[in-house]
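Service request form, structural biology core

Requester: graduate student, group of Dr. S.
Request type: structure prediction, single chain
Budget code: on file
Notes: please return the result as structure tokens.

Sequence provided:
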Amino acid sequence: MEPESTSAPRIHLASLGCAKNLVDSEKLLGRLATAGALVGAPAEEADIIIVNTCGFIGPARDESIQTVLEYSDARITGNAKKLIVMGCLPERYAQALKSDLPDVDLFFGLHSHQEILEACGLRVSEGKDDARLLLTPPHLAYLRISDGCDNRCSYCTIPLIRGPFRSRAPEAILAEARDLVRSGVRELVAIGQDTTSFGKDFPEPYPIHHLLRELAAIDDVRWLRLLYTHPAHFSDQLIAEYVDNPKLCAYVDMPLQHLNDNILRRMGRRVSQADCLNLITKLRKNVLGIAIRTTFIVGFPGETDFRFNELLGLVRELRFDHMGAFAYSAEPDTPAASLPNQIPTDVVEDRLEALMLAQQEIVFEKNEAMIGKTVEVLIDEATAEDGIWIGRTQSQAPDVDSVTYVIGENL
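Core staff response, request fulfilled:
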């Protein structure tokens, strides 16, 4: 698409939060560049600063607000004429932000790219515009297959921010994937709030394993990776796709959130401890070398010492390859925020530390067991030292997991 503006504002964009936010940022940058803007300017040289915020939980909101304040201070010595805040935070808290952050010129929620272009003094002709400027290494791209969520977990604000679950049209996903591969991408990472629900809203069945098979049929795709799966929707057909699809990384990202039945019910997770354990057993039995990543919420209302210790014991027993854990954050307008038996902060912090220490021991032992083995590594970047490179194996997802250092020349 031809740019319609002769002006060339210099734009600096900071993207916070998850990979889904990153895709939003990449699509906006692509549209800005198409419209004639100079994107990628350092903040001190930019005419316009844009911050794409995360508003999922308290710590993410705090980080977003702190980042905005830092850019607000930077305007004093820089060139920026406008400071724009976009994304999840203003989608939910626009009115409060206007009073709390008076130095911000404009706030935009989700799905406001056209309005942001106009605020930057740019115009793009009407019509389809799939421009995207990757912020990842050139061989890697996230592929959003859905948005929103219908699970309504009692602690979660995603449905309040991003709305109900909506699958993208398969033909649009496949067209974007082909464009990405033509540009040099070799690893496609499928993302959404609940990727295992993909296709449930179509008139005719088109489940996630069908989409993965179609993506694998694209020439030059080397690795496919599926993130943000839900244990309640993980089908036997999807497990079979892991077995049969050589391009699909033997890697499952499946947030379990807890493993005590009482807490799972309070969370509204729609699975039991037995469901989770059976699924993990099936994955490990059927998918050779499967790596499992999960996350847990510690300190959920009603989490007694017994219930936490049950979780801790199962983490030690199940030995996940990767694990993240978060302190429960009571979010406004969520059912969990009004539950009785909220846990004191100091208790939550102690439990979080105990859980992460247990996982650190497991990871250390798993890493030791890898010594002497030969594995395929995808190189992401060079380090400052000659002959040392940073890459990932199939069992390491970008950004959230560990990395593999490779020593060699001319890689």
